[in-house]
Amino acid sequence: MRFYTGSYTRMGGPGVGVCRWENGQLSMVNAYHDLNDTTYVILSGDQRTLYAVGSLPETGESAAASYRAAGDSLELLSISAAAGKAACHQAESADGRFLYVANYLTGSVAVFPVENGVLGQRIQLVEHTGCGPNEARQECAHIHQCVFRPGTNELFVCDLGIDKVVVYGQNPGTGLLSLKEEITMPGGMGPRHLVFADADHFYVTGELDNVVRYVVNDGGWKIIGEMSSLPADWTGENTSAAIRLHEGALWVSNRGHDSLCKMDLDEKGHMVSAAWTLTGGKIPRDFDFVPGGILFAHQAGGGVMASAGASIPMDGAVCICLDRTTV
Q1: What range defines the domain where residue 211 resides?
Q2: Residue 95 to residue 43: CA distance in whole angstroms
Q3: CB-based burial, 136-168: b 16+ in 10 Å, e otherwise
Q4: What is the domain count for the chain?
Q5: What φ, ψ does residue 96 adopt, rounded to 5°?
Q6: Is the CB of residue 4 less than 8 Å from the CB of residue 39?
Q7: 111-to-23, 97, 100, 274, 312 alpha-carbon distances in Å
Protein backbone atom coordinates (compact mmCIF):
# COMPACT_ATOMS: atom_id res chain seq x y z
CA MET A 1 0.00 0.00 0.00
CA ARG A 2 0.99 3.62 -0.51
CA PHE A 3 1.28 6.31 2.15
CA TYR A 4 2.63 9.83 2.43
CA THR A 5 4.77 11.44 5.11
CA GLY A 6 5.44 14.97 6.28
CA SER A 7 8.78 15.86 7.86
CA TYR A 8 10.87 18.73 9.17
CA THR A 9 13.36 19.72 6.49
CA ARG A 10 15.35 21.67 9.10
CA MET A 11 16.06 18.32 10.76
CA GLY A 12 17.06 16.69 7.48
CA GLY A 13 13.70 15.31 6.42
CA PRO A 14 12.62 15.29 2.75
CA GLY A 15 9.47 17.41 3.19
CA VAL A 16 6.80 15.25 1.54
CA GLY A 17 7.65 11.59 1.13
CA VAL A 18 5.82 9.03 -1.02
CA CYS A 19 6.27 5.65 0.63
CA ARG A 20 5.17 2.05 0.34
CA TRP A 21 4.40 -0.75 2.80
CA GLU A 22 4.61 -4.09 1.02
CA ASN A 23 5.39 -7.63 2.15
CA GLY A 24 6.44 -6.42 5.57
CA GLN A 25 8.91 -3.90 4.14
CA LEU A 26 8.94 -0.09 4.05
CA SER A 27 10.43 2.10 1.34
CA MET A 28 10.37 5.74 0.21
CA VAL A 29 9.98 5.98 -3.56
CA ASN A 30 9.75 9.76 -4.08
CA ALA A 31 10.29 12.99 -2.14
CA TYR A 32 9.20 16.60 -2.70
CA HIS A 33 10.71 19.66 -1.01
CA ASP A 34 8.47 22.49 -2.24
CA LEU A 35 7.79 23.65 1.32
CA ASN A 36 10.10 23.73 4.29
CA ASP A 37 9.11 21.74 7.38
CA THR A 38 6.09 19.94 5.97
CA THR A 39 4.17 19.26 9.16
CA TYR A 40 0.90 17.78 7.93
CA VAL A 41 -0.38 16.12 4.75
CA ILE A 42 -3.89 14.95 3.85
CA LEU A 43 -5.58 13.46 0.81
CA SER A 44 -8.72 15.04 -0.61
CA GLY A 45 -12.00 13.21 -0.28
CA ASP A 46 -11.70 11.87 -3.82
CA GLN A 47 -8.07 10.78 -3.11
CA ARG A 48 -6.82 12.67 -6.19
CA THR A 49 -5.18 15.65 -4.46
CA LEU A 50 -2.58 15.73 -1.69
CA TYR A 51 -2.50 18.85 0.46
CA ALA A 52 0.59 19.75 2.48
CA VAL A 53 1.28 22.56 4.94
CA GLY A 54 4.63 24.01 5.95
CA SER A 55 6.51 27.22 5.26
CA LEU A 56 7.76 29.11 2.22
CA PRO A 57 11.52 28.58 1.73
CA GLU A 58 12.01 32.24 0.82
CA THR A 59 10.24 33.96 3.73
CA GLY A 60 9.38 31.35 6.37
CA GLU A 61 5.69 32.31 6.16
CA SER A 62 3.12 29.55 6.57
CA ALA A 63 1.85 28.07 3.32
CA ALA A 64 -0.25 25.30 1.84
CA ALA A 65 0.60 23.32 -1.27
CA SER A 66 -1.50 21.01 -3.43
CA TYR A 67 -0.33 18.10 -5.58
CA ARG A 68 -2.02 15.87 -8.12
CA ALA A 69 -1.52 12.31 -6.89
CA ALA A 70 -0.76 9.85 -9.69
CA GLY A 71 0.52 6.48 -8.57
CA ASP A 72 3.78 6.92 -6.71
CA SER A 73 4.34 10.41 -8.15
CA LEU A 74 3.08 13.86 -7.24
CA GLU A 75 2.63 16.85 -9.53
CA LEU A 76 2.77 20.25 -7.85
CA LEU A 77 -0.41 22.19 -8.63
CA SER A 78 -0.24 25.26 -6.41
CA ILE A 79 1.28 26.97 -3.36
CA SER A 80 -0.53 29.69 -1.40
CA ALA A 81 0.68 31.73 1.59
CA ALA A 82 -1.28 31.25 4.81
CA ALA A 83 -0.47 34.59 6.52
CA GLY A 84 1.00 33.09 9.67
CA LYS A 85 3.83 31.10 11.20
CA ALA A 86 4.23 27.34 11.72
CA ALA A 87 1.30 25.84 9.83
CA CYS A 88 0.60 22.53 11.55
CA HIS A 89 -2.76 21.11 10.46
CA GLN A 90 -5.44 21.34 7.79
CA ALA A 91 -8.97 20.23 6.93
CA GLU A 92 -10.86 19.98 3.65
CA SER A 93 -14.54 20.89 3.45
CA ALA A 94 -16.88 17.99 2.69
CA ASP A 95 -17.54 19.27 -0.83
CA GLY A 96 -13.82 19.75 -1.54
CA ARG A 97 -14.23 23.46 -2.37
CA PHE A 98 -12.29 24.89 0.58
CA LEU A 99 -9.18 24.16 2.64
CA TYR A 100 -8.64 25.35 6.22
CA VAL A 101 -5.09 25.70 7.57
CA ALA A 102 -4.12 26.03 11.24
CA ASN A 103 -1.16 28.29 12.08
CA TYR A 104 0.37 27.28 15.40
CA LEU A 105 2.70 30.14 16.36
CA THR A 106 0.36 32.94 15.31
CA GLY A 107 -2.88 31.31 16.49
CA SER A 108 -4.89 31.67 13.30
CA VAL A 109 -6.88 29.73 10.70
CA ALA A 110 -6.45 30.58 7.01
CA VAL A 111 -9.22 29.81 4.50
CA PHE A 112 -8.52 28.94 0.86
CA PRO A 113 -10.84 28.25 -2.06
CA VAL A 114 -10.01 25.16 -4.11
CA GLU A 115 -10.84 24.44 -7.74
CA ASN A 116 -9.77 21.20 -9.40
CA GLY A 117 -7.15 20.75 -6.70
CA VAL A 118 -5.66 24.22 -7.20
CA LEU A 119 -5.52 26.52 -4.18
CA GLY A 120 -6.66 30.08 -4.71
CA GLN A 121 -5.51 33.09 -2.72
CA ARG A 122 -6.46 33.18 0.95
CA ILE A 123 -9.97 34.62 1.47
CA GLN A 124 -10.07 34.80 5.27
CA LEU A 125 -7.80 34.77 8.30
CA VAL A 126 -9.43 34.06 11.69
CA GLU A 127 -7.16 35.03 14.58
CA HIS A 128 -7.40 33.97 18.22
CA THR A 129 -6.25 36.01 21.22
CA GLY A 130 -5.65 35.14 24.86
CA CYS A 131 -3.32 33.05 26.97
CA GLY A 132 -3.28 30.25 29.55
CA PRO A 133 -1.73 29.53 32.96
CA ASN A 134 1.37 27.78 31.57
CA GLU A 135 3.54 30.83 30.93
CA ALA A 136 6.16 28.90 28.96
CA ARG A 137 3.71 27.31 26.51
CA GLN A 138 0.53 29.37 26.71
CA GLU A 139 1.79 32.94 26.37
CA CYS A 140 -0.61 33.46 23.47
CA ALA A 141 -3.02 31.55 21.23
CA HIS A 142 -1.56 28.45 19.56
CA ILE A 143 -3.96 26.67 17.20
CA HIS A 144 -3.00 23.04 16.68
CA GLN A 145 -5.85 21.37 14.78
CA CYS A 146 -8.98 22.08 12.77
CA VAL A 147 -11.49 19.34 12.00
CA PHE A 148 -15.10 19.26 10.82
CA ARG A 149 -17.80 17.83 13.06
CA PRO A 150 -19.22 14.82 11.14
CA GLY A 151 -22.23 15.60 8.99
CA THR A 152 -22.13 19.35 9.68
CA ASN A 153 -20.53 22.59 8.51
CA GLU A 154 -19.02 23.20 11.95
CA LEU A 155 -15.23 23.50 12.16
CA PHE A 156 -13.78 22.56 15.56
CA VAL A 157 -10.46 24.28 16.30
CA CYS A 158 -8.15 23.11 19.10
CA ASP A 159 -6.22 26.01 20.66
CA LEU A 160 -3.44 24.85 22.95
CA GLY A 161 -2.61 28.38 24.06
CA ILE A 162 -6.00 29.44 25.39
CA ASP A 163 -7.35 26.05 26.60
CA LYS A 164 -10.34 26.09 24.29
CA VAL A 165 -11.93 24.18 21.45
CA VAL A 166 -13.45 26.95 19.35
CA VAL A 167 -16.38 26.10 17.08
CA TYR A 168 -16.96 27.98 13.83
CA GLY A 169 -19.86 27.74 11.45
CA GLN A 170 -18.78 27.42 7.83
CA ASN A 171 -20.82 29.12 5.14
CA PRO A 172 -21.05 26.34 2.52
CA GLY A 173 -21.37 28.85 -0.29
CA THR A 174 -18.52 31.21 0.50
CA GLY A 175 -16.41 28.99 2.75
CA LEU A 176 -16.10 31.81 5.30
CA LEU A 177 -16.10 31.08 9.03
CA SER A 178 -18.15 32.72 11.79
CA LEU A 179 -17.76 32.13 15.52
CA LYS A 180 -20.43 29.83 16.94
CA GLU A 181 -19.28 28.83 20.43
CA GLU A 182 -16.27 28.14 22.63
CA ILE A 183 -15.77 24.95 24.61
CA THR A 184 -13.56 25.73 27.60
CA MET A 185 -11.11 23.04 28.66
CA PRO A 186 -9.39 22.75 32.09
CA GLY A 187 -6.71 25.40 32.67
CA GLY A 188 -3.25 24.30 31.57
CA MET A 189 -4.54 21.34 29.54
CA GLY A 190 -3.34 22.63 26.18
CA PRO A 191 -5.84 20.86 23.86
CA ARG A 192 -3.86 19.55 20.91
CA HIS A 193 -5.94 17.15 18.81
CA LEU A 194 -9.44 15.73 19.00
CA VAL A 195 -11.19 12.83 17.32
CA PHE A 196 -14.94 12.45 16.86
CA ALA A 197 -16.65 9.18 17.77
CA ASP A 198 -19.78 10.60 16.12
CA ALA A 199 -21.35 14.04 15.73
CA ASP A 200 -22.14 14.33 19.46
CA HIS A 201 -19.09 12.71 21.07
CA PHE A 202 -15.39 13.49 20.84
CA TYR A 203 -12.14 12.80 22.66
CA VAL A 204 -9.48 15.50 23.03
CA THR A 205 -5.92 15.03 24.23
CA GLY A 206 -4.11 17.66 26.29
CA GLU A 207 -0.55 18.16 25.11
CA LEU A 208 0.46 19.83 28.36
CA ASP A 209 -1.27 17.67 30.99
CA ASN A 210 -1.30 14.37 29.01
CA VAL A 211 -4.95 13.75 29.88
CA VAL A 212 -7.62 12.68 27.39
CA ARG A 213 -11.11 14.10 27.97
CA TYR A 214 -14.36 12.58 26.76
CA VAL A 215 -16.72 15.37 25.67
CA VAL A 216 -20.41 14.82 24.96
CA ASN A 217 -23.06 17.10 23.48
CA ASP A 218 -26.01 16.77 25.88
CA GLY A 219 -27.72 20.13 26.00
CA GLY A 220 -24.25 21.66 25.53
CA TRP A 221 -20.73 20.26 25.28
CA LYS A 222 -19.66 18.73 28.61
CA ILE A 223 -16.63 16.76 29.81
CA ILE A 224 -17.93 13.50 31.26
CA GLY A 225 -14.73 11.46 31.61
CA GLU A 226 -10.95 11.62 31.54
CA MET A 227 -7.88 9.38 31.64
CA SER A 228 -4.13 9.96 31.58
CA SER A 229 -2.20 8.79 28.54
CA LEU A 230 0.73 7.90 30.84
CA PRO A 231 1.34 5.08 33.32
CA ALA A 232 0.80 6.11 36.94
CA ASP A 233 4.47 5.59 37.81
CA TRP A 234 5.88 7.72 34.97
CA THR A 235 7.75 10.79 36.26
CA GLY A 236 9.61 12.05 33.18
CA GLU A 237 8.64 14.82 30.80
CA ASN A 238 6.02 13.98 28.17
CA THR A 239 3.69 15.66 25.70
CA SER A 240 0.87 13.74 24.05
CA ALA A 241 0.55 14.08 20.28
CA ALA A 242 -1.82 12.24 17.91
CA ILE A 243 -5.15 10.65 18.86
CA ARG A 244 -7.14 8.11 16.83
CA LEU A 245 -10.06 5.71 17.20
CA HIS A 246 -9.49 2.18 15.88
CA GLU A 247 -11.32 -1.10 16.42
CA GLY A 248 -13.31 0.14 19.41
CA ALA A 249 -10.35 1.62 21.27
CA LEU A 250 -8.78 5.05 21.64
CA TRP A 251 -5.07 5.42 20.83
CA VAL A 252 -2.70 8.28 21.82
CA SER A 253 1.01 8.77 21.09
CA ASN A 254 3.34 9.93 23.86
CA ARG A 255 6.47 12.00 23.22
CA GLY A 256 8.90 11.43 26.08
CA HIS A 257 7.49 8.13 27.27
CA ASP A 258 7.84 7.22 23.56
CA SER A 259 4.85 4.95 23.57
CA LEU A 260 1.43 4.34 22.10
CA CYS A 261 -1.31 4.28 24.71
CA LYS A 262 -4.36 2.11 24.01
CA MET A 263 -7.48 3.06 25.99
CA ASP A 264 -10.24 0.50 26.03
CA LEU A 265 -13.80 1.85 25.82
CA ASP A 266 -17.02 0.49 27.28
CA GLU A 267 -20.32 0.34 25.43
CA LYS A 268 -21.05 3.98 26.30
CA GLY A 269 -17.67 5.23 25.09
CA HIS A 270 -16.14 5.75 28.53
CA MET A 271 -12.41 5.07 28.90
CA VAL A 272 -12.05 2.13 31.28
CA SER A 273 -8.46 0.86 31.10
CA ALA A 274 -5.13 1.65 29.45
CA ALA A 275 -2.08 -0.25 28.19
CA TRP A 276 1.16 0.94 26.62
CA THR A 277 3.45 -0.23 23.82
CA LEU A 278 6.85 1.32 23.13
CA THR A 279 7.06 2.57 19.54
CA GLY A 280 10.74 1.72 19.01
CA GLY A 281 11.89 5.28 18.26
CA LYS A 282 12.13 8.72 19.83
CA ILE A 283 9.37 11.34 19.98
CA PRO A 284 6.55 9.53 18.14
CA ARG A 285 4.27 12.15 16.58
CA ASP A 286 1.77 10.56 14.22
CA PHE A 287 0.74 6.95 13.67
CA ASP A 288 -1.79 4.92 11.70
CA PHE A 289 -2.96 1.36 11.29
CA VAL A 290 -2.07 -0.79 8.28
CA PRO A 291 -2.68 -4.47 7.51
CA GLY A 292 -0.35 -6.37 9.78
CA GLY A 293 0.63 -3.57 12.12
CA ILE A 294 1.03 0.09 12.96
CA LEU A 295 3.17 2.78 11.31
CA PHE A 296 4.87 5.41 13.48
CA ALA A 297 6.45 8.74 12.52
CA HIS A 298 9.29 9.61 14.92
CA GLN A 299 10.48 13.18 15.07
CA ALA A 300 13.76 12.70 16.91
CA GLY A 301 14.99 9.20 16.16
CA GLY A 302 13.91 6.09 14.29
CA GLY A 303 12.26 7.70 11.27
CA VAL A 304 9.15 5.93 10.00
CA MET A 305 8.82 2.53 11.65
CA ALA A 306 6.40 -0.36 11.50
CA SER A 307 5.44 -2.25 14.63
CA ALA A 308 6.70 -5.38 12.88
CA GLY A 309 10.22 -3.89 12.78
CA ALA A 310 10.75 -2.45 9.29
CA SER A 311 11.81 1.19 9.01
CA ILE A 312 12.63 4.09 6.70
CA PRO A 313 15.42 6.42 7.84
CA MET A 314 13.71 9.82 7.90
CA ASP A 315 14.88 12.55 10.22
CA GLY A 316 12.14 14.80 11.55
CA ALA A 317 9.22 12.56 10.53
CA VAL A 318 5.97 14.00 11.94
CA CYS A 319 2.98 12.89 9.85
CA ILE A 320 1.57 9.80 8.13
CA CYS A 321 -1.29 9.85 5.59
CA LEU A 322 -2.53 6.54 4.15
CA ASP A 323 -3.76 6.23 0.58
CA ARG A 324 -6.76 4.10 1.49
CA THR A 325 -7.44 3.19 -2.14
CA THR A 326 -4.32 0.99 -1.93
CA VAL A 327 -5.04 -0.72 1.42
Answers
A1: 185-278
A2: 13
A3: ebbeebbbbbbbbbeeebbbbbbbbbbbbbbbb
A4: 1
A5: 75, 10
A6: no
A7: 40, 11, 5, 38, 34
SS3 for 9?
helix
Q: What is the CATH number of the domain that holds 239?
A: 2.40.10
Radius of gyration of the chain from its Cα atoms, rounded to whole angstroms: 18
Q: Note the pLDDT of residue 217.
A: 98
DSSP 10: G
Q: Rounded mean pLDDT of the chain?
A: 97
Q: Is residue 223 one of the residues assigned to a domain?
A: yes
Taking only the tens place, the pLDDT of each residue in 296-324 is 999 999 999 999 899 999 999 999 999 99
Residue 247 in domain:
yes
- What are the C-alpha distances in Å from 271 to residues 212, 228, 256? 9, 10, 22
Asked if the structure places residue 270 within a domain, the reply is yes
Mind listing the pLDDT tens digit for each residue in 244-300? 999 999 999 999 999 999 999 999 999 999 999 999 999 999 999 999 899 999 999
